[in-house]
Design brief:
The chain is α+β, with helices and mostly antiparallel strands and 276 residues long. Helix content is 27%, strand content 42%. A hairpin with a 5-residue loop joins β1 and β2.
Length: 276
C-alpha cells in the first residue's frame, strides 16, 4: 500500500476499534509517539495501547485531510465532540515505522472523564452525605488543585459552602488577575481537598513506631469552576461568601467587588475518608 492508502486504512480500523488490525499496519520495531504520552515501541506494545484506549473510551476519527509526501503520510482529524489533532506516519514498504500524533490531552480527558475510583480501604470511606456536609460546613479553608499548562498547582483558599439538597457548591474569591485566575479560566476542572482540622490528631504510640497513626476526617471533591460574569453576580456570590463568616451587616462597595474575582465551584464527584 502507498502511504496515503495506509493512513486511510488506519482511519477505517481505528473507527472499528480493531486493535489487532491496527497493529498489523506497523513494522515489528515501530514506534508510536502521541506527544501527550510516552512513546510506545514494538508492534505488541502498540496493540496493547490500542486495546487499552478502546476499552477506556469510545473514540471516532473523522478524517478532514490526508496527504502524502514520499514515505510520509499526514492526517488532519477531528472527532464528533470537537477535539482536533493531526498525525504523521513514516511508512516504509507499506508498514508504519514511526508515528507521531498531536492532540490536547486535557480536552480529551474533559470529554472522557475516567471512572470514579473507589477508596481502597473501604472501611475508611465516609458514605453518609450528612457527615460530608458536616465536614464542609464546619471548616473554612480548602486546597484548590488545578493545572497550569501541564504543571499541577494547588493553593489554600477560604470558601463558603452552598447546599441544595445533596448538590454542593463552594464560593471562592481572589485577585482579579494572576496565576490562579489564569489557570482556572484556561481549565476550569479542579479538585478540592478539605481537612477537618478539629478531628485531626496524631496518636503517639511511644517507641512502638509501627503503631503511630493519625486520626482524621477529610473530603475530596472534583468538578469545575465558573466565574461571576458581572457586578450583580459578584454581589450575590460575595454575600453568600460573607454570610458563612458573619451574621452581621455586610457592606460590599462596588470598587471592592470590581477589584476581585468571584467564582463558584460545582462538585460533580464527592468522597470522604476517615480514621477515627
Amino acid at each position: 500500500m502507498t502511504p496515503k492508502e495506509v493512513v486511510k486504512k488506519f482511519v477505517t480500523l481505528f473507527n472499528s476499534a480493531d486493535a489487532g488490525g491496527l497493529a498489523e499496519l506497523y513494522a515489528g520495531d515501530a514506534v508510536n509517539h502521541q506527544v501527550a504520552n510516552a512513546p510506545v515501541a514494538g508492534k505488541a506494545a502498540i496493540k496493547a495501547m490500542f486495546e487499552a484506549e478502546f476499552a477506556a473510551a469510545e473514540m471516532v476519527c473523522i478524517a478532514e485531510n490526508i496527504f502524502a509526501d514520499g514515505e510520509w503520510g499526514m492526517l488532519e482529524w477531528r472527532d464528533p465532540k470537537g477535539l482536533r489533532g493531526c498525525g504523521f506516519f513514516h511508512i516504509v514498504d507499506g508498514k508504519i515505522v514511526f508515528q507521531r500524533g498531536y492532540w490536547d490531552k486535557l480536552s480529551f480527558l474533559a470529554q472522557n472523564p475516567p471512572e470514579e475510583r473507589t477508596i481502597r480501604r473501604s472501611a475508611c470511606a465516609i458514605t453518609d452525605f450528612a457527615t460530608i456536609a458536616e465536614i464542609v460546613r464546619g471548616n473554612n479553608s480548602a486546597v484548590l488543585s488545578m493545572v497550569d499548562g501541564v504543571t499541577p498547582y494547588g493553593v489554600m483558599m477560604n470558601y463558603a459552602p452552598v447546599f441544595d439538597g445533596e448538590e454542593l457548591r463552594l464560593i471562592f474569591h481572589g485577585a482579579a488577575s494572576g496565576r490562579k485566575t489564569d489557570c482556572l479560566k484556561n481549565n476550569p476542572a479542579v479538585s478540592v481537598f478539605i481537612n477537618d482540622a478539629a478531628k485531626t490528631q496524631i496518636v503517639d504510640a511511644g517507641s512502638e513506631s509501627a503503631r503511630w497513626t493519625t486520626r482524621y476526617r477529610s473530603v475530596v471533591l472534583a468538578g469545575e469552576v465558573c466565574f461571576a460574569a458581572g457586578l450583580s453576580e459578584k454581589q450575590r456570590m460575595a454575600e453568600a461568601f460573607m454570610r458563612h463568616y458573619t451574621a452581621g451587616e455586610i457592606r460590599l462597595p462596588d470598587a471592592a467587588l470590581n477589584a476581585a474575582a468571584f467564582f463558584a465551584f460545582t462538585a460533580r464527584h464527592v468522597s470522604g475518608k476517615q480514621n477515627q
